[in-house]
Amino acid sequence: SVTWSAPSDGGSPITAYVLTRYSGATCSTLSRTFNLGNVLSYKDNTTTKGTTYCYTVAATNAIAQTTTVVQ
């Protein structure tokens, strides 16, 4: 499972998160994007054993979209 903390919302509620998965030894290959609702975790059931994955999560609200690296 991938988990993260909600960022400061700048006065506008977070409406959704976009989780992006990268793979490879240096996590430089875009593997998949998940459009999520207003949740703080996601269980990725589409991984392959023995493969390295890294994730970024972007929070979206009416003001902007922010990105945080989650590994």
Q: How would you portray this structure in words?
A:
Helix content is 0%, strand content 48%. The protein is mainly β and 71 residues long. The protein has a four-stranded antiparallel sheet with strand order 3-2-5-6, with no helix packed on it. Strand 5 and strand 6 (65-70) form a beta hairpin. The chain is elongated, with a radius of gyration of 13 Å. 8% of the residues are buried. The mean pLDDT is 89.
Rounded mean pLDDT is 89
From N to C, what is the helix and strand string?
EEEEEE
Percent of residues in helices comes to: under 10%
- Pick out the low-confidence regions: none
Structural class: mainly beta
Largest sheet: 4 strands, antiparallel
Kindly state the number of beta strands: 6
| Net shape | elongated
C-alpha Rg, in Å? 13 Å
List the helices and strands and how they pair.
Elements: E1 2-3, E2 16-23, E3 29-36, E4 41-42, E5 53-60, E6 65-70
What can be said about this structure in brief?
The chain is an all-beta fold.
Main attributes of the structure:
elongated, four-stranded antiparallel β-sheet, 48% strand, mainly beta, 6 strands, two-stranded antiparallel sheet, 71 residues
